[in-house]
Structures are given as structure tokens and as C-alpha cells.
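User: quick one, sequence for these C-alpha cells?
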């Protein structure tokens, strides 16, 4: 196994996803012995609102996600890798907790909000993904020395503590522009994309990041249409055509990849 920056992100986003789903399903009553947290009404120090309502049971999501994922991921792994995976999984779980939103309901005479009751709610998972993507960009390469992960700092080696919530990795990333069978990377040359304008724009960025040229073109594709059930027992379809917009990565003069 290689533990690259991308591996660290994958572990963290998987851990966050498990925590998110388990926490959400707990609130929805999908588990027999779990429910959202009914807070006793506690007034905030600034007297602006009361904590109450039914907050997300984030602790349940964190505990169950840790138990489930690490039982699978760290089985028979060496100590160094166990600690590395556990660290990045923790970053993912905490990403859900720190992004919980405050949701409130007003009370009082119609049209006023003299009193508010507030509780914690999960954000969209897209927000958590963006948060972890920023962590990915700031991830630190480390070495495992005397049971601690250390990274190079301006004054020498510095220990990375779990409370810092930094993604860590031990191996440099391969060149994903090049085809590399050892890491199941197909490379970028010849990559074809289709779909929405947003998807095609992402594809163009991938091409350009490897010094390749993105070529847009249209392709006529056949598909089944006007399907009808015939007695008995067949489905008969006509053949229709549609025009599909596609993008392909091709060689340019500034290509970084070896042909």
C-alpha cells in the first residue's frame, strides 16, 4: 500500500461520509437504540436564545463510524499504518462535527422573535467535502519516529498531534498525468468526457493541467426508444439517435506526458 496525499483524503472523506449517514439516520429513527438529542432548555450566556429542540446525535455517528471503518481498514496492518489511517479518519469525523449548523425557531407574538430555541443540524455533505478539500491541499508529509508522526518545519522536525486536525501522508504522489499500471492510473491522454457543461469544464481543466489540449466535439449515439411490451413476453424498442457533446484530451506542444 502507498499512503499518499490522495489516500489521506480518501480515508478522511470516507470516514466523514460514514459519520454523516449514521448521524442522519439516527435522527430519522432508523436505529432502534438511537435518537436525536433532546436538549434541556439552556439559555446562552448572552441571553440571545435557548439551546433546545432535537440536535444531531453526532457522538453516535462518530463512535459507530470509527468502530465500523477501522475494523475493516486497519486489520493486520503495521502499527505505523494503523496510526496513520486512524489519524486521517479522525480528521474526517471531526469535519462533520465542526460543520454542524445552528438552526433556530422563533417564539412569541406573530411577527416577532422575542425568544428563539436553537439546535444543531447537519450541513449539506458538499460543505464537508469542500472543508476536507482544503485540508487535502494543506496536508503534510510525515515520517514515523519514536511512535510519533513528524514533519519538517523551519526549526527541524515537528510532531503532528491529532488535535491539529491535519491530514498526513508518508508517500509522494505519482504523476497522475502518466499511465501507471502499478497504481491503477490510466493517465490523461485520450481521456473522454461527456455530460453537463460543468462536467466538460472540469475535464478541460484536467487536460490543461497535464499540458494537453482539450478538444470539444459532437458524437452521434444510438439508444433504444419508444419501447413497447408485446404479448408474450417481449419488449420491442425502436432505435433513435442523439447528438452528445464530448471533450477529449489530445497532445499539444506543451504536453508534460511522455508519449
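Assistant:
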Amino acid at each position: 500500500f502507498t499512503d499518499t496525499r490522495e489516500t489521506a483524503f480518501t480515508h478522511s472523506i470516507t470516514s466523514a461520509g460514514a459519520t454523516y449517514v449514521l448521524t442522519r439516520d439516527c435522527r430519522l429513527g432508523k436505529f432502534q437504540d438511537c435518537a436525536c438529542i433532546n436538549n434541556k432548555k439552556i439559555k446562552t450566556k448572552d441571553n440571545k436564545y435557548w439551546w433546545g429542540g432535537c440536535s444531531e446525535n453526532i457522538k453516535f455517528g462518530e463512535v459507530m463510524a470509527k468502530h465500523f471503518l477501522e475494523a475493516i481498514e486497519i486489520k493486520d496492518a503495521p502499527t505505523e499504518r494503523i496510526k496513520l489511517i486512524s489519524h486521517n479518519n479522525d480528521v474526517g469525523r471531526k469535519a462533520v462535527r465542526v460543520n454542524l449548523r445552528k438552526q433556530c425557531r422563533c417564539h412569541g407574538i406573530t411577527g416577532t422573535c422575542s425568544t428563539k430555541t436553537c439546535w444543531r443540524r447537519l450541513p449539506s455533505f458538499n460543505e464537508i467535502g469542500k472543508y476536507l478539500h482544503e485540508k487535502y491541499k494543506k496536508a503534510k508529509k510525515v515520517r514515523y519516529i519514536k511512535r510519533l508522526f513528524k514533519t519538517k518545519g523551519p526549526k527541524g522536525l515537528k510532531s503532528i498531534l491529532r488535535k491539529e486536525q491535519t491530514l498526513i501522508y508518508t508517500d509522494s504522489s505519482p504523476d497522475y498525468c502518466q499511465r501507471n499500471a502499478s497504481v491503477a492510473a490510466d493517465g490523461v491522454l485520450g481521456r473522454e468526457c461527456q455530460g453537463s457543461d460543468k462536467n466538460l469544464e472540469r475535464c478541460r481543466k484536467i487536460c490543461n493541467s497535464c499540458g494537453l489540449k482539450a478538444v470539444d466535439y459532437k458524437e452521434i449515439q444510438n439508444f433504444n426508444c419508444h419501447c413497447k411490451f408485446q404479448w408474450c413476453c417481449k419488449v420491442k424498442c425502436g432505435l433513435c439517435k442523439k447528438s452528445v457533446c464530448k471533450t477529449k484530451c489530445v497532445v499539444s506542444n506543451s504536453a508534460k506526458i511522455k508519449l
